[in-house]
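Handout, section 4.2: multi-component inputs.
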Amino acid sequence: MKENFTQGGFTLPGEAGYEQLTLELAKKWGADVIRDSDGTKLSPEIVEAGYRIYSTICIIREHNAFAEAHPDAQQQTFLSSDAVIAEGPEAVIEPLKGYFDEQFQLNDSPEALEYWQVWDRTAGEVVPRENWSYADGRITVTGCTPWHRYTASFLCWRIWEEINMYNHTTNHWTSEHLRQLDPRHPLAWEYLQDWLEKWCVDNPQTNVVRLTSLFYNFVWIFGEDMRRRSRFVDWGSYDFTVSPAALKAFEAEYGYALTAEDFINKGKLQATHRPPTAHKRDYMDFIQRFVAEKAKVLVEIIHRHGKQAYVFYDDSWVGMEPYGKYFASIGFDGLIKCIFSGFECRLCAGADVPVHELRFHPYLFPVGLGGLPTFSEGGHPERDAVAYWLHARRALARQAVERIGLGGYLHLTQGYPEFVDAIGEMGRQFRRLKALHAEGAPALLPIRVAVLHTWGSLRSWTLSGHFHETDANPLIHVNEALSGLPVDVRFIDFQQAESGGLKDVDVLINAGFAGDAWSGGEVWNSAELVAEITRFVCEGGALIGVAEPSACPGGDSFLRLAHVLGVDIDHGEYACHAPWSFEVQPAPFAVCDDALAAMPGARLTDPETKVLVAEGGAPRMTLHAFGKGCAAWLSGFEYSPAAARMLLELLLHMTGRTGKDAGISDDPMVETAWFPASKTLVVMNDANAPVEANIEWPGGTTRVALGPEELKFVQV
Amino acid sequence: MKENFTQGGFTLPGEAGYEQLTLELAKKWGADVIRDSDGTKLSPEIVEAGYRIYSTICIIREHNAFAEAHPDAQQQTFLSSDAVIAEGPEAVIEPLKGYFDEQFQLNDSPEALEYWQVWDRTAGEVVPRENWSYADGRITVTGCTPWHRYTASFLCWRIWEEINMYNHTTNHWTSEHLRQLDPRHPLAWEYLQDWLEKWCVDNPQTNVVRLTSLFYNFVWIFGEDMRRRSRFVDWGSYDFTVSPAALKAFEAEYGYALTAEDFINKGKLQATHRPPTAHKRDYMDFIQRFVAEKAKVLVEIIHRHGKQAYVFYDDSWVGMEPYGKYFASIGFDGLIKCIFSGFECRLCAGADVPVHELRFHPYLFPVGLGGLPTFSEGGHPERDAVAYWLHARRALARQAVERIGLGGYLHLTQGYPEFVDAIGEMGRQFRRLKALHAEGAPALLPIRVAVLHTWGSLRSWTLSGHFHETDANPLIHVNEALSGLPVDVRFIDFQQAESGGLKDVDVLINAGFAGDAWSGGEVWNSAELVAEITRFVCEGGALIGVAEPSACPGGDSFLRLAHVLGVDIDHGEYACHAPWSFEVQPAPFAVCDDALAAMPGARLTDPETKVLVAEGGAPRMTLHAFGKGCAAWLSGFEYSPAAARMLLELLLHMTGRTGKDAGISDDPMVETAWFPASKTLVVMNDANAPVEANIEWPGGTTRVALGPEELKFVQV
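Output:
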């Protein structure tokens, strides 16, 4: 290869006041695009330097004057009050007590009050409307049953855009609180279109409008008390899309009315981690269509002005999931995803959109999302960047993206020359990987993996949010491992599994805890589903269950696939039933004990189940031959390079395949991707120590020496 | 006191062939009674030595000739086959496959077959009778849904009395397998009455007939495979009482028919640790009445012969629970309970019967129940005896019994002089305690504790079986701690709690895991129950919840008393809801961390809940002021002297009382009972080291020095 991969596919955050630095780093990192960031502006000097320009717009924000003139155009949400115990026949509820009053304001307009509810949570019954009244911010409930607990569900305005609120409260900003408009409000929608039109006219230098993101923020509810400031945060739920107008439109279309309880759900709300109700599914589809329709109009305005529209898939992303049914119809020219992990790279790379761009971490900010220093005292941004890169590169070796970039305040990189160098090196590796993919795809093993959960393809690769926000769920670890493995991966839901979706699948994975959306919860009451997976494995398929796969109380086993897995989990129902005793048997491959978890109630349902790992008398990893197929159960799964290798070995063992076809190392810390068209092995050392490894590939075996964490392109 | 407490209230197991030893030890231990044991006989030399004589009878056993002549008079049970997967439209089930064929034999008589069922366990539906047929020990199911799992529920004969089976298989006995008769069978019942009549005539020397126990053994199901030999064992369930005759009698009386599924319960059976169905409650009452009626007839025969009838409450105890509604009506003269623990002493001592006798452990057998050596190489029977005595003596300091004793092969004590001495010393201490009680009861604190669970008073003190069989349940540890505390203890069920049962209660305790009989399970769906306990605490009562008290999924909190406790437990339902942060606060008394357990999902529902112990970010012990009362939550409770002291301190703290009124030591390892009538302090050192402690009692403070594990009677 002649190219030195120093130029292109890189988006640099420019910063006014630091023009020289901006242009210097643009050159050093091979940028072809300069962008602004939340809180930064570009100066004419930068804009006119010959780079393509991205300009960031948060479409529903920064219209405070309009919001003040039209407060009813602001966004809303349902909330539930904390419970009040009735000591007599009357109880008084202050709905917003305990919520952050800078975020919420009661919506006690007549059309909102229609949707308010008061609940007797002890009896689980809604209180008749005639038994409560509202005045001056207080609800008085009469006819109470003494000692019962009462809550109110109510609508309120959200008077502070949540990302602005987060930045303010985290970084001690003192600027005006930004409000957000609901595009469902007719005047607001007219206003926003006009505003965008005018913006395009006023910004002729902009090549790409970078929408951050669309309309509705993920749900983030603040409390008054600092001991529980962030009361609820879910990157995938839909509460912040609601309004009386939305509810009326829904009712008109669907023929039934949603109530507050469809959102409040006994105060638990409807988190993405939990299986949705049928009503919630309807509502999500309703919102997704609305978001797509409105976004399409905005994209058309942008296109009409000769600009491109890229969307940044974070923050106000609700309803525009890239794997949703309506995403492609919007007509975006590019999708930008900020990433910490491999699964996020795959999420971006696989979306149906022309350009895929990754925004790397760390963000150029004094502190990171977790609150630890990055570009400030005690920070090591170069270490952070490399740590994230180790996750990203193995995913990029499997599937290409077109672009990478950074965000934030460029001046913060001053004094961090190692960070500057590290980013330069990542850029070069990224470009070379991209070039390899362009010559021909990397070899894939003939192993088709389907990850089975409630959301299926809608939430391909992700659960909801970043790795560190969901890392208590074994599935995100499984996804992270899969993101860098040479296997075909798809995400299917239970309905698909039941109706032919297992046809082209070799290995089915179900990983989650009892009752969650990833394990599946009550869907496992479906005899058809259980029978179909029983058939699938009996006829030769492979099943991997992690933690509490197919768990659902009420059956004759807790794991509804216990007969397939050869394992069940006792939560007390086995009282007095002795478990099968067992001995741990040698594993057919290297087992990574550390990846597993404690599951004290695990027990065998078949004495022929092979236990590979056990702890305290309970199995932690098992294999079970079942008909012509087999099943594996893992008590947990925590991502590490060794855990990913174990998963690969398990996939190979269960399907009777060999890793050689896609390139495989004899050192579990070394990962390989084999690009047959360019006869190149991409060899990655995941260990922080030098290593020499033999790489088996279809043409033979090649010995490769690598430095700590080194990536090598080896032509063979 | 002049007495030296060397004589009386002691039952010695005599042994033919060891006449001298028998009489020697009878003297040494101060025995007034000599008994035989399972497997031993008394010789005329012993019988005529002037002691009262107990003779052991297991009424339904040792009638093999009759059983062989009348095989349909044997006892039965329902069993469920293991599941068979239908790969096509037909499935074949071998009902008894996997069960121990020396214990069970199919009952395929026409009247039994009526009760057989075949289940599609995947669909959760019973298979219509026309879709299965039975022949030659096999069930053929037709019209199957492919890939569904099918089970058969069937009746079978139990052809080996379970205690005999256990002794055979454990001790390698080779004698004939003993069978057992069902007193419900009319011929068997006639036979048994005649037999007892004749036995009484033939055994004029016997003063007390020691019934071991009555008719129906606790449930003990053996498997064929040694990897799961003891498939199911429950000391409190009723499966072994069933027969077509019982089912028909039940139907005639109750107006509805029980089915196999009422017993099989998806293969899980109906263990005592799980809340019963309404049908099971009816059936238990039906059996309890039957057992009491028949037992009364036997007792009358015994009385007619001038003998007394004592019952040994173990083995075939089902239906004769000493706190059951019909127990007193039987007319027993005495209740004998074998004990390892304090709660068993209280269980025996509190029963409504004239004489209460404890049979101490270890049993004079080469190995103990757990299979470890006692009177054989490696055994230390004196250590075992003292360990059990430490548990028993603190209970005996609270409530007296009339008698103690031993069982087994007396000759095994030879070569264990320390054991012989230890028993002598225990006898003296027992007699002195008994004398103290006779002079006047020990002081009780004005703290009335009610332990709340499904079974209420029926299972006072016990769960089902001995401590080591149920020690995974925190409640048995709580009961063990309470058995030696100077507080009033009662056991109430949920219906009582709901209907005025909390009137005279100061502290309510609910201790168990979600869904079990001790926590309560679905009963917590009762708004009345929740409201009543809310009222109770709000008006000044105290609530102690251990592990998962009041747990029941489906509400707005997992613990239905979360609002009272200030604590809830997250099993995933709180997804995305942040917990209240907290800091551990100093405890108002010495906390025994070791008694608590891991409960990772525990979280505060009120920021004002005081956390006394936490681990890994989750609280383990909390206090919560609630209205005029308060609540405490403990993640677990494992008995130890320090844990018992913590419970006492907690009770004192929550009720605002002082321990002085009943005598209390400043050393938590020293327990005290204050007998005001005899002005005696009973001071017990629970530690294995010498100690000096100050005992506060109503008359002042007394300093007492005690050797390791010493009990002292201190007159003040």
